[in-house]
Each structure stands twice: as C-alpha cells, then as structure tokens.
Specification:
Distance between the termini: 44 Å
Number of strands: 9
Largest sheet: 7 strands, mixed
Strand order of the largest sheet: 1-2-9-6-5-3-4
Radius of gyration: 20 Å
Shape: globular
Helix content: 40-55%
Number of helices: 16
Length: 387
C-alpha cells in the first residue's frame, strides 16, 4: 500500500505520495472553492495529466476554466493573461499543474485575481507593495516535474519582459500536492535538467554563508536521494520508487531554501538563462561542478560530505584541492549518466564570456561562502564551457 505523508512547512502545507493528486477536488472543496482557474502548459494538457486533475474536480462538483498558455520562464504578460481569464470567469480558486513555470504562473495569477495589475507592482526587489493575502483566493500547486520545489516556496519567479530580468513575487500556496505518479513518462531530457535544478538548490543552500541546521538536514537528504535515485530513473524511466525519490528531493530542496539562499550556480544561471534562452535547470546546473571546486577551500567538510552523498567517495580530511576535484568529478559523473546538456548547445564561448559584466552587476553572490571577482566568474564559465 502506498504511504502518504503530510509535511507542514512554515507557509506551505504539502501532501506527498503516490496517487495524492486524486484528492485535488476534495481539498479544494475543503477550502470553499466552487470554480477554479486551472493553470498549465499545452504539453502537460496534451499528455493527459491535467485530465486526471479535472476528473477529481468534477467528482467534487467544482467548476473550472483552463488557462493553458503557460510559457517557459513565465513572462509578465502570460500572468496577466491568466488572471484576466480567471476574473472574467468568476473563479474563486487556482490549481496550477505542471513544471515550475506553471506553478509560478499560477501563483502570479492568484495575486492578480484580487490585487491590481500589473504584476510588476509586487516584485520583491521593489519592496514597496505587497499583495493582500487576506483577500486572495486559495491555490493548490501540483508539480509534474521534480525540479524547482515551487510547491514548498512562498513565491514565484516572473520574467519582466521590459527589463529582461527575473523577479520574485510573494505568494505562498494553500497546499502543494506532490504525486510521483505524475512524473512517470516525463521525458528524460526534462528529467535531467529539472533534477539538476533541485540538486543546485540543495547544494547551494547547504553551502550558503547563512546556513541553519534544519535546512542542512533537508539538503543533505535531497543530495543523497538525487545521487541514489536519479541514475536509476535513467536506467528505468518507469521505476516509480526512483521517480518518487527524485520528486522528494526536489520538494526537500525547496524547503531547504527557507533560510539559506542560492549563490554561484543560480546567480549565474538566472543571467545566462535570460540572455541566451537557456532552460532554467540547464543554466543553473551548468556551473555546479566548478562552483563546488571553487568553494571547497571555504567549506572543505561540507564539500567532502556532498561528494560522499553523491558518489560514495570518502575524501574527508584530504587537501582542499583534492576535495574540490573530487566534488567536481562527482557531479560530472552524474551528468554523464543523465546526459546533462552542455553550454555549447546553447551559446558560443564568446557570447558567454561577454555576459560577465551583467553577472557581476550590481552586487551578486552575497550568499556565497567565498568572495568572487569578475576574474573568478570568467574562469568558472571558461571551465564549464570547455567541460
């Protein structure tokens, strides 16, 4: 019998377990939702995954309207479009189904259903206007990829199409439903880059200069699960227990970010991803081996432990250089097993290095355990490109 577990984080309750998505309608009914805005992309809809959720809503007597125009790295206009449909149809709840882009679009749409447009009003960087959570309708988020852990984080990342920058919009979810069965059939290419995103989040939070013991426990487990389970998914994509392990790792990586923050891979990834249209997981994962090698002198014990969790190799007590190289190799070997894409598939070397000034502007890497210069970033990018 499948085991179902409930995790209560500080803001986002999470229902985890095989088959839990069948409870979506029941949970919406508990929240008083009578008509829901279902947010997804066309790929998830065409794959029949959304149909499973719709049957659950129908069984609970909940009406719905579908917005299937989700875009990768969701642009501001698509969030406005989804919210406009929801307001027009008189919804009083949101269900976001899909990868991180769908979940982030759903969260932004939820904000705009009861708060004035544009979504740029609520970028955290502005620190001026916060949406009125007391008036917002309930939202359930259902991830179908094991990557961002957005079901566990109190916000979404939106791309401003005017400035070409990404911004966080505050929005917790009323419930995250994490059903590993929904990842069965997920293409291996998507599995690879989304899992790399989860691994980056766990590693970066674990090695942040603002760590905490609770976060460390979740991040350690996430890293271990990815090291053990992700290769098994690539050996047998339909092995549910392996898929479950990777999905749990993604959720834990999202929970692990609640306190510590990301640094080298994500801060570089956010810039090069936007500049060169590189998928988020690919952009962030691109520099993870080099980042671990770079920070090893600052956190040798933690980097050695990451190596042990990922590959089983014991490098505790060795020199900083040896630990850094072992950590680098452990990620590279994992990337080989999962056919992780190379930077050269997206951008030329010259274009990549030309982005260094934008990466360094205005004050990046404040959560990195070791200070970086533009020269350091250039060296990291050169090594990552040539790998």
């Amino acid at each position: 019998m499948n085991q179902i577990s409930v995790c209560l984080s500080t803001r986002n309750p999470i229902l985890f377990g095989s088959g839990t998505s069948a409870r979506t309608g029941e949970e919406l009914g508990r929240m008083g939702v009578t008509k829901a805005l279902v947010v997804c992309d066309k790929g998830v809809k065409d794959a029949g995954i959304v149909e499973k959720i719709l049957k659950s809503l129908q069984g609970a007597g909940i009406e719905y309207v579908i917005y299937d125009g989700v875009q990768p790295d969701p642009p501001d206009w698509s969030c406005e479009e989804a919210a406009e449909l929801g307001r027009k149809e008189g919804v009083n709840g949101v269900v976001a189904v899909g990868g991180g882009s769908s979940l982030d679009t759903g969260k932004a749409a939820r904000v705009l259903l009861t708060n004035p447009s544009p979504i740029s009003n609520y970028y955290l960087a502005h620190e001026a206007v916060f949406p009125d959570e007391a008036t917002m309708y309930p939202i359930i988020v259902i991830p179908t990829t094991a990557g961002t852990g957005s079901e566990a984080t109190p916000g979404g990342v939106i791309t401003d199409t005017t400035t070409k920058q990404k911004h966080n919009v505050p929005c917790a979810s009323n419930l995250g439903i994490v059903d590993p069965e929904l990842t069965l059939g997920l293409p291996l290419g998507v599995t690879s880059v989304t899992a790399a995103d989860a691994l980056c989040q766990a590693v970066e939070a674990y090695t942040s200069n603002k760590p905490n013991e609770i976060s460390d426990i979740m991040c350690e487990r996430a890293i271990e699960l990815i090291g053990n389970c992700l290769p098994k998914v690539f050996e047998n994509p339909n092995e549910l227990e392996a898929r479950k392990g990777v999905h749990l790792a993604a959720t834990l990586s999202g929970l692990g970010l609640m306190g510590p923050f990301c640094h080298i891979p994500h801060e570089i990834g956010l810039i090069i991803g936007t500049l060169f249209d590189i998928p988020h997981g690919s952009a962030c994962g691109a520099t993870l081996p080099e980042a671990l090698e770079f920070i090893a002198p600052a956190l040798p014990e933690k980097v050695a432990h990451i190596t042990k969790l990922l590959s089983g190799e014991d490098v505790y007590g060795k020199s900083h250089g040896e630990i850094g190289r072992a950590a680098y190799d452990s990620v590279c070997k994992l990337y080989e097993k999962i056919s992780f894409p190379k930077l050269s598939e997206y951008v030329t070397r010259e274009e990549l290095l030309a982005a260094v000034p934008q990466i360094m502007d205005p004050y990046p890497f404040v959560h990195c355990p070791r200070e970086l210069t533009a020269k350091d970033v250039t060296a990291i990018l050169e090594k990552a490109y040539d790998r």
